[in-house]
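FIELD: query
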Amino acid sequence: MLGFVLYRHLEPLANLLTYTVFGLSRESHAAAALSFFLFEVPKVMLLLVSVVFAVGVVRSFFTPERTRRMLAGKRESLGNILAALLGVVTPFCSCSAVPLFIGFVTTGVPLGVTFSFLISAPMVNEVALVLLFGLFGFKVAALYLTTGLAIAMLAGFIIGRLKLERLVEPWVYAMPVGAATADGDLGWPERLRFGKAAVKEIVGKVWPYVVAGIAVGAGIHGYVPQDFMAAIMGKGAWWSVPLAVLIGVPMYSNAAGIIPVVQALLEKGAALGTVLAFMMAVIGLSLPEMIILRKVLTLPLIATFVGVVASGILIVGYLFNFLF
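FIELD: result
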């Protein structure tokens, strides 16, 4: 209740601080940037805490061990679909990419199905999904969900059809298959503690990225001319989608940190497809994840993975620029 009341009064409070306390002119670029920053930081943080708590509770039902058991032995096409869906709600970060990959492969999960999960888990991020819904509404959130899942399913299917198991580092297949551990049935008090622990761990780690992302978004909102942004990332520039992907791949940001940048870009006239492509490249093809995956994948397989996923992101960007 307190959070709801605070949420309702964020905009007038931000305006009071910007125009009365700091005395900035309403027509100045600095005022536009500062008002955006003061409004968005508490708004995004309130959404983030709420979402992470709920996600922490949901994740208590989906441990990595249970996920491996659900995917092992499934037909490949069904496995791609199930893996992409499970990737949305199961725990994943770049540091867990290697142990998850080893666990999946050594327990009989096909390579293509494994990649559907590895693509979906970071790209279709549940925190980003709810933040997008809270900031932009149902349409943008639904587009993000459906296109991210489609890329994960199709990319995993293509990689599976290419039969690239020989490009996995040989030592992975030599690993012994570990015994499955019991997940145990948790009661609701334990699950609620999972939610609180998730808030402490995740929000504690990502809040600097959130603030940094909002600061970048505030700079774009206040100082970047709308015509300039529309020319660089608008529908009329055919090269804007591949440029957005190229810019996004080497960047490192989590989903919560990139959402405020996405918001500012859209407000300045950037095309929806181009912005979606940029966001997906940042969180789905991050350079740190590729470096970590190099421990278990050869360079040709990493290049195939990046090429297939990047092609899907390009298609999404052009498709939504054409439709919207």
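FIELD: remark
The chain has one domain: 2-174+186-323.
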